[in-house]
Amino acid sequence: MTLKSLTSLAEIRKSQERKPELVTDIGEYLLSSGALGTTEDAWLAYEQICVAACDTGKIQLAKICVEELEKKFPGSLRVLRLNGMILEASKDLPGAEAIYNKILETEPNNIVRDMEKYVKELNKYIDTYYNDPEAWLELCNTYLTLQMYPQAAFCAEELLVQQPHNHFFHLKYAEIQYTIGNIELALQEYLRVVELATDYIRGFYGIKLCADRLLNEIDAGKKSTKGTNSSGKSSKNTFDKATLEKLVQLAANRLLVVYYNRSSDDDDVDSATPMSKTVLEKWLKNMS
Fold it and tell me: Where is the EMC2 TPR-like domain (predicted)?
């Protein structure tokens, strides 16, 4: 049970999904059983549980996590930020503001240097433990924080080499490519996402966004730019107008079905109210 719980927390961190109720339930079990330990994963889990506890209003659980983190990382701005989140969740807004101001008063150049040092240390670690997907994911997220998108894309490609059937990694790569502007490559990756995880909302949402954007380019008479990977190589596949239109319709239909299922108590698509159907259809139409 303990190993399964730790694995579940790691998977949620990888996917970057917000599942505060599940995370706090797992966290309460791990803390009560004393199973977290002092591994590197344990400190990530403490932080993850603390944030989830703030989201769910379980302030005491959040405080327990921060106490453990403060013992391990005294004076850490990252832990200080968690204290601010706890005060926010406790409705102590002046106290939270004071902490955030204290963080902001820290010399910005020091923060930048800390990030640069962190990237260097992560790269050193990866040189030794090349097949550690969590390290690659952390480096990818750090590059994204620094808005270094080509470097983040390279990290995502390494993740895909190591775990080609992980739909979360395909999703991350697709979102990075969309941000960079490599829309065709992003579309290919979003299609891979829904191939691996049926009815995954973010996958179909991405398909519709990409296909709509490519159709708009075609309608405007622009020549579609081929997608490229982090090495600057063009993607092999292109999408004609007929294919893109079919993808838009497919994505919209699947999103409607998934949302209908989630919004009805008995998971019956036909039970969705006319109002909810109208709202969803209007929202999907306005996505383009």
Answer: 81-177
